[in-house]
Amino acid sequence: MLHATGPLRLVQIGFALVALWVGASATNAQSVGEPPCRADYRIEARLDAATMTLSGTETIRWHNKSRDDVHDLWFHLYWNAFANNRSTVMHEARGELRGVAIENDWGWQRVLSIEVDGEDVTKRIHYRQPDDDRSEDRTVFSVPLGKLAKTGTIVEARITWEAKIPRVRRRTGFKDDFLLIAQWFPKLGVYETGNGWNCHQFHASTEFFSDYGTYDVTLDLPAEYEGKIGASGVQSEPSRVVDGRVIARFMAPSEKDRERRDKTGKLPLVHDFTWTGDPDYVKYSATFHYDEWAARFAGEVARVATALERPAEDLRVRDVDVTVLLQPEHADQGARHFDATCTALFFYSLWFGEYPYEHITVVDPAWGGGAAGGMEYPTLFTAGSRKFTWTSMFSPESVTVHECGHQFWYGLVGNNEFEAAWMDEGFNTYTQNEALIRRYGLRHRTTDFASIPFDGVPLAREPGGSAFADAIALRRWSLPRGITLEPVKSSGFVDWWRQVPMLSFGRMRDDPRWTERTGYLADPDSDPVNTPGWRYVDRASYRQNSYARPSVALRSLCGLVGFDHFMKGMRQYAETWRYAHPYPDDFYETFNTGAGIDVGWYFEQAFESTATVDWQLEVDQKAVDPLAGYVQNAEGVFERVEREKDATDATEKLDDADDTDKNEARASNGESNETFTASKSSDKKKPWRIDVVVRRKGSLMLPLKLALEYDDGTSESLIWSREEQARSTWWKPLSGREPMTKKLVSAAVDPDRLYSFDRDMSNNEWHEKRDEVAPLRWSERVFTQLSHLLHWYGGLGG
């Protein structure tokens, strides 16, 4: 080997540094939000309504933008989760989907033929179970490539397939003529550089993950669906009716959207395609106009512009056409669905960047098809509603805002929902509640009687929960030989008669932002938030750690860093990772960069651990006794203070005598005694010894504020730092202070409620004076409810 010296060596070093820089740039290019791969689909599908089957063909052009040479393709066949009772979904759900035992109306998918770059590889299909060993689970398969797909090349796959549509029980399926067709075609997994194919099985507690691209879909349906079809994207040409069939073509994104760069400078893409049809659909169409909403919420626009340090005009986003597909019985709710959709489009776009598509579709599932409700897909989502509802009940407002919000968290920032569902569900729960409170205010809690809501809730629970309680409540009598009697069946009229809600119920108003804390408290520490969806200990842990707890963590993060830094960090994350696949570390890093604050320690505690906290405040306050005993004088000699209290009492008596003479003199001159007496009383005010203890139960450590208020109108705030908390689980902030002439009237930890993690906020405040009226008022309501109930039971209805 020849060793270069002198100038030649310097040139070699220079080339090496350039190579390293280029390599680093290539690596970083994937970490700034560009999707590593892309998948473009062209699909044609035909529905046989008599057998509820689909047959289809599709062409997939997969762009290998990874840095690997790839030797196979992995696909999802999601509907095989509903093929039998041995699939992974059915095993994890114990044979039930949304509480319904599955015994019929199964669904399945099968590939009839598959060609890759012109080579037939049908016989080389290999079913995979990457997450468990359940051989009957056929939700993932792979095929080998005839030649390596080099980085930067395009692979074309042509697939012919057929499928049996399942009865709608979980996100997809049919109910009579109603169709919600989701996860319905063989779909590629996501190839990740260095990790291979990310293509998980369909689990009971997971959703979906796929690459961004474009979709061109042609549907062939019975003619009764003409004009009653909704789909991702927009319909690209007028429908055609031929031989009793309607042919409809959709493109997502639309042709116009594919040519229009969004506010981040990127061309819009989507990562899924879903469609729906129902001959009974009633359409409501309107347009979201940003300017109208910006004028209504000008203060919020100004607040965000200030936080982001951008002109308000730079926050302006496009108008969006909205189509609501309603069931006939909900036709009068079209404007409410539209308003809730606009609520999400405005606030989410204002906070996290523009919704870049020209159209969005809202779907109201058919009666009996509620399992298709409350689900998100690109530019289309399903909501859900009911009869006899008003806006302050948040039905359909809450679910509509939430599912529309997924157009941003999951739709535009496409995290891996299998492995980190909290990055869309938790982010969306937080944002949804912020939007709801601004648009609709407090939610009214109601109780149903014969499906008609009453504005109020019972304040005490009725007897129940055991055989004895059910017997004395006349609900159920269990007799020998398996005989069961129900003396008094529940019904709207009977329930109203028994409970007398007008007299015994209380009205309840909820701040939607605090509902996430209620969910968090149900299971605050079973698993870390950052856990794959199928690895939580149970379904409850999945829900709390995907929805409520990350929302609590985001709300507390905003309290920790302040709104301006929080908004900058979240906006940086949303814009950086648009049309890409971020993971938790990407969120942590991008947020820190955007916010300009390193809170890695917080992410570690809030998302990567099971740390919780309960702050407890204790106050002991007493008047200080007069000085007594031995006191050291200036010469260092101890002198005994004799009977200081008696001397004080004697002085007080003399003062009182003087006061009497002075008062008599003042009275003779017609003067009031009140001012003089008050001043003497003030002079004799004794000092107070105030002991305050703050305890931390749990391992979560956050900078904690303590607010103190005194009877002279003064106040002070003290901070218990994380460093101090690491050294001790308790804090005595007033320790070592001399007795004070002022008296403490109130104390509170986290007085601004910046943090939502505290497991028990009832011990966070102390007040010298207590409210004695409120407990009596609530007790009276509870007593009234139970007395009416006992009276009703005692006389079988009175």
Any chance you could write out the topology, listing elements then pairs?
Layout: H1 6-30, E1 38-48, E2 53-63, E3 70-76, H2 88-92, E4 96-97, E5 100-101, E6 108-116, E7 119-120, E8 126-127, E9 140-149, E10 154-164, E11 173-175, E12 178-181, E13 187-188, E14 190-192, E15 196-198, E16 215-222, E17 229-231, E18 234-235, E19 240-242, E20 245-252, H3 255-258, E21 275-277, E22 282-288, H4 290-296, H5 298-308, E23 320-326, H6 334-352, E24 359-363, E25 375-377, E26 380-382, H7 397-405, H8 422-440, E27 443-444, E28 447-449, E29 452-454, H9 467-472, E30 477-479, E31 483-485, H10 492-499, H11 501-504, E32 509-510, H12 512-522, H13 539-561, H14 563-576, H15 584-595, H16 600-608, E33 614-623, E34 629-632, E35 638-641, H17 644-668, H18 674-683, E36 688-697, E37 704-710, E38 715-720, H19 722-727, E39 730-731, E40 744-749, E41 765-767, H20 773-794
Parallel strand pairs: 1-16, 23-24, 24-26
Antiparallel strand pairs: 1-2, 2-10, 3-9, 3-13, 4-5, 6-7, 6-10, 8-9, 11-12, 12-21, 14-15, 16-20, 17-21, 18-20, 19-20, 22-23, 25-26, 27-32, 28-29, 30-31, 33-36, 34-35, 36-39, 37-38, 37-40, 40-41
